[in-house]
Design goal:
single chain, 8-stranded parallel β-barrel, alpha/beta, TIM Barrel
Length: 359
């Protein structure tokens, strides 16, 4: 096993952990097969309406593994330019932890070509996750010094309304250069795993369009109550009525959590599929990012997604397949492998098929 250390470029760093974390490496034979298949992927990794990409492009373990970036790509600008030459889209997870300035998103536009797009992971002020006080803008942190001063993480509902509105406005200012350039894919709202299918939670989802006007919003559920039989159709109807895209997930089916991979479309112009891997042993409360997402997809696992992806792309104008297993080059390989498999199986030969069952 190899010790991997977190660190590197701040804006795109995934997660908040630091220090050394020991994680097992992928089976060498599986790694060989995944890399062999990746060589057959189109460049960039798009097949028809399906755009494949990863959740971030500067994870420190990806930078250090030495298999994706050329030695000449040493600066943030050079790395983004190389990534954008290989993939048509990327999901930015750093916006979940802190809100950069609009100058950052403007730089991304300069460093990547059209029609490359950015999906942004929504800040906790929109999702209900606790907000890290240390990652707030300095003026807002000062304004909150007397709000629960003994805690480092603040629940959005406990913030004064004017502070919540300022955070929402700051996020909107950050995404505006991308939106104005037609390069914003969507804002992905990932609900906390403790958010169940209640009327109150539905009202918060229904309000998203008002606080994020003019952008496509995708919603990822993390509690299985949203997809229970007898409720699932009503949830999808609610998403459609509010213009929200349903995020299909591929993740472990674990006790106390895990959402099934139900393939459905709730916006005619966008479908999103997020691949989290199947590292059951690392899918537990308190697990680090490295532990949870240290997973390399086998070609056979991704092959089971070809027909569901084809069916989804027939229902919507654009599909984003996002690989969130960002350890070493595993997400890069997953995105390329899926694109290679989609390319190898012509759409005309596809039959309607259900989504694969969770592992």
């Amino acid at each position: 096993m190899k010790v991997l250390r977190r660190g590197g470029e701040r804006v795109m760093g995934k997660g908040q952990s630091s220090g050394a974390v020991t994680v097992p490496e992928a089976d060498p034979e599986l790694l060989r097969r995944a890399r062999e298949l990746a060589l057959r992927a189109p460049v960039p990794a798009r097949v028809g309406a399906i755009a494949c990409g990863t959740a971030g492009w500067t994870d420190p373990t990806l930078l250090r593994c030495g298999t994706f970036y050329p030695a000449t790509a040493r600066t943030p600008a050079e790395r983004l330019a190389h990534y954008a030459s290989q993939f048509p889209m990327v999901e930015v997870d750093a916006t979940f932890y802190a809100i950069p300035s609009p100058a950052v998103s403007a730089q991304w536009l300069e460093r990547s070509p059209r029609p490359f797009v950015f999906d942004l992971k929504a800040h906790p002020v929109f999702t209900g996750h606790p907000i890290d006080r240390k990652r707030l803008p300095s003026e807002l942190a000062r304004a909150l010094k007397d709000v629960a001063p003994d805690t480092t993480r603040l629940c959005p509902k406990d913030l004064p309304r004017e502070i919540r509105m300022e955070l929402e406005a700051a996020f909107t200012r950050f995404l505006e250069p991308l939106r104005a350039a037609g390069r914003l894919g969507c804002v992905m709202v990932q609900l906390p795993p403790w958010t169940t299918a209640t009327r109150g939670a539905v009202r918060e989802l229904e309000a998203l369009g008002g606080v994020l006007p003019g952008v496509r919003i995708a919603v990822e559920f993390r509690h299985p109550s949203w997809l229970e039989e007898g409720r699932r159709d009503r949830v999808f109807d609610m998403l459609r009525a509010n213009g929200l895209a349903y995020v299909i997930v591929d993740e472990p089916d674990v006790q106390g959590g895990g959402v099934p991979p139900v393939a459905a479309a709730t916006r005619e112009d966008l479908g999103v599929v997020r691949f989290h891997g199947h590292n059951v042993a690392g899918w537990h409360r308190g697990a680090s990012v490295l532990e949870r997402f240290n997973y390399l997809y086998a070609p056979e696992q991704l092959g089971a997604w070809v027909k569901p992806m084809r069916r989804l792309s027939a229902e919507v104008r654009e599909v984003h397949a996002v690989f969130n297993n960002c350890v070493r080059d595993y997400a890069v390989l997953g995105a390329r492998d899926l694109a290679a498999l989609l390319l190898a199986e012509p759409a005309a030969n596809d039959e309607v098929a259900p989504a694969p069952e969770p592992c």
